[in-house]
Amino acid sequence: MVEIDLDITRAKTLPSKYYTDPQIFESILSKFKSTWNFIGHASQFEENTVFPININQEQLVITKSQGQFSCLSNICTHRGMILQHGKECKKTLTCPYHGRTFSLDGKFKHMPEFEQAVDFPSPDDDLQNFDLEIWNDLIFISQEPKSSFSKWIKDISERMSFLDLEKMSYDSSRERNYTINANWALYVDNYLEGFHIPFVHKDLNDALEYNQYETELFENSVLQIGIAQEGVPYFDIPEGHQDSGKKIAAYYWWLYPNIMLNFYPWGLSLNLVKPITVDTTEICYSGFILDEELLGSGAGGDLDKVELEDQFIVESCQLGMKSSSYKSGRYSPTMEKGVHHFHRILTDSSD
Ligand code: FES
Ligand SMILES: [Fe+2]
Predict the structure, then answer these.
(1) Which residues, judged by CB distance below 6 Å to any ligand atom, belong to the binding site of ligand 1?
(2) Tens digit of each residue's pLDDT (9 = 90 or more) over 44-85
(3) What is the pTM of this model?
(4) Which backbone phi and psi does 56 adopt, to 5 degrees?
(5) Residue 198 within a domain
(6) How many CA atoms are closer than 13 Å to the CA of 170, on its beta-carbon side?
(7) Are residues 30 and 72 in the same domain?
(8) Which of 92, 95, 111, 113 to mutate to test the pocket of ligand 1 (most atoms within 8 A of CB)?
(9) How many domains is the chain partitioned into structurally?
(10) Position 161 in a domain
(11) Of 56, 93, 100, 271, which cross-links 32 as Cys (Cβ 3.0–4.6 Å)?
């Protein structure tokens, strides 16, 4: 495993094989299980919803019953059939293969032709239950959490506490799914620096003060702060908050490994970076509104345009990673602290 020098002034960037080697890709992906994954907004689930999802190559099903959410294995405990194929409202989960039935909290309920089976049913016949947490109506799950959810979300929760996040409403018209031909980590690299804004995002560059762009590092996350230019909407931050007095147009939070929470005065845009193969990635956008009147203006105005500008860069860099003439580069000590931090975490946690 390569070591990224702690000293950014000397460090070399992540070697290109990290973006192209299928084995390294698989080994990094296996670490995703221990982090928290975003699933959706509570308002997307009516009572008795069952919603199958595939997270980190694991088949799971999210259920809501009597107001309680569960994250269950979507694999039948009899002979391994997938239980649920599409989103539906129903009161039990019944296996389409031989009819084994489970309640929506994963407990075994019934199985035909098993009267003579000894020591049956046992807890092994229940569906496996995974950790699920809800933060301001946003649902997160983890298969093998390494840290508690409250610890994982603490820095964001405290810093953004001046917003009425519990009032955020889900806006389905802001859902976007893009598939790009690049490794997921290239997308994260690009997100973690504002260095490219004047070169790649001309309109965004007219909204933010490039010279005042800030990057802060946390144990498992990075915060970038964009300061508003004249006339651009900014947050009204109360006295006593550490950012009070600053004209902040955007807080860009990245949480290891693949979640981005972008707070604008109008609300939150959440990006999920889902690795599909070593050089294919799905980017899923969701939007949550706090102030409808501010939509479409400022740093979070035309997100589709910014996204396409970034995709062109990231897909082009993937070609660069495959080239025999590129192995690794260097970091800008002033502008690429976030990228350096990400590479340090990635190489530490993939030991
Ligand atoms: S595999 Fe599910 S009942 Fe047989
Ligand atoms: Fe960008």
Answers:
(1) 76, 78-79, 81, 95, 97-100
(2) 999 999 999 998 879 999 999 999 999 999 999 999 999 999
(3) 0.93
(4) 50, 45
(5) yes
(6) 14
(7) no
(8) 95
(9) 2
(10) no
(11) 56
